[in-house]
C-alpha cells in the first residue's frame, strides 16, 4: 500500500492551509470534534504516554470564562471562532501508563524525576496539539493556533483542582478567507536544515 498522499491532500494539510483569524457562522458538531480527536490520538508519543488533554470551548458560558485570559489582539477572533481548543497536558500523565504502555511498568521512569516528567509531558502534548491541527484540516476544518493568553487565568478557570495545565489555544471552524493576511515567508531547507 502506498502511503504517498495526493497533491490535494498535501495542499489541505500544508501548502494551501492557512492560520485563520476570521470565521464563518458555520457550526462545528460535537461528532466532528470527536472525529478530530480520534485521529489526533493515533499520532506517536514517547512510550505512548499521550499526555495531551483538550478542552473544546464552544458554549457562550465557556467563552465568557476564557475571555478574561485572552490578549487584546486575540479576543475578538477567539470569541468569534465556533470552537476554541485549550491544548493542555496532564502533569500526572504517567498514571495512565499501565493502560497505555502495559508491557512494562513505565511510571517509575517519570515519578522519580519531576524534570523528566515535565519535559516529556510538555514535548509530547505539544506534538499531540500539532496532530490535532492536522487532523482538523484533514476533516475539513480550519485552524488558528495562538499563544497570546494568560496561562494562569486559563488554568484557574478551567483546570482548578486537576492535574491539567494549558499549553496554547487553537481556534477551529470554517475560516473566512477574506480575513486572511498574506502568507509570510518560510526558511529554506539550507537555512533550517543540516545534513550531517
Automatic annotation (TrEMBL):
Name of the protein described by the UniProt record: Putative NADH dehydrogenase/NAD(P)H nitroreductase GCM10007935_41090
SUPFAM superfamilies: FMN-dependent nitroreductase-like
CDD domains linked to this entry: RutE-like (cd02148)
EC number from the UniProt entry: 1.-.-.-
Family indicated by similarity: Belongs to the nitroreductase family. HadB/RutE subfamily.
InterPro entries according to UniProt: Nitroreductase, Nitroreductase-like, Nitroreductase_HadB/RutE, RutE-like
Organism: Hydrogenophaga electricum
Keywords, ordered alphabetically: Flavoprotein, FMN, NAD, NADP, Oxidoreductase
Listed PANTHER family: MALONIC SEMIALDEHYDE REDUCTASE RUTE-RELATED
Signal peptide positions (record): none
Amino acid at each position: 500500500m502506498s502511503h504517498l498522499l495526493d497533491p490535494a491532500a498535501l495542499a489541505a494539510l500544508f501548502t494551501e492551509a492557512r492560520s485563520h483569524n476570521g470565521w464563518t457562522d458555520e457550526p462545528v458538531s460535537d461528532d466532528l470534534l470527536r472525529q478530530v480527536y480520534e485521529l489526533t490520538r493515533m499520532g506517536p508519543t514517547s512510550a505512548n504516554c499521550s499526555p495531551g488533554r483538550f478542552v473544546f470551548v464552544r458554549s457562550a458560558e465557556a467563552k465568557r470564562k476564557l475571555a478574561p485570559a485572552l490578549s487584546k489582539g486575540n479576543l475578538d477572533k477567539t470569541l468569534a471562532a465556533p470552537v476554541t481548543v485549550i491544548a493542555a497536558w496532564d502533569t500526572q500523565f504517567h498514571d495512565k501508563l499501565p493502560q497505555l504502555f502495559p508491557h512494562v511498568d513505565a511510571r517509575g521512569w517519570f515519578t522519580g524525576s519531576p524534570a523528566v516528567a515535565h519535559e516529556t509531558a510538555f514535548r509530547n502534548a505539544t506534538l499531540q496539539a500539532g496532530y490535532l491541527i492536522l487532523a482538523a484540516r484533514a476533516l475539513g476544518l480550519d485552524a488558528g493556533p495562538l499563544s497570546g493568553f494568560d496561562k494562569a487565568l486559563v488554568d484557574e478557570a478551567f483546570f482548578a483542582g486537576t492535574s491539567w495545565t494549558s499549553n496554547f489555544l487553537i481556534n477551529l471552524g470554517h475560516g473566512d478567507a477574506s480575513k486572511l493576511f498574506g502568507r509570510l515567508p518560510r526558511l529554506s531547507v539550507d537555512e533550517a536544515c543540516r545534513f550531517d
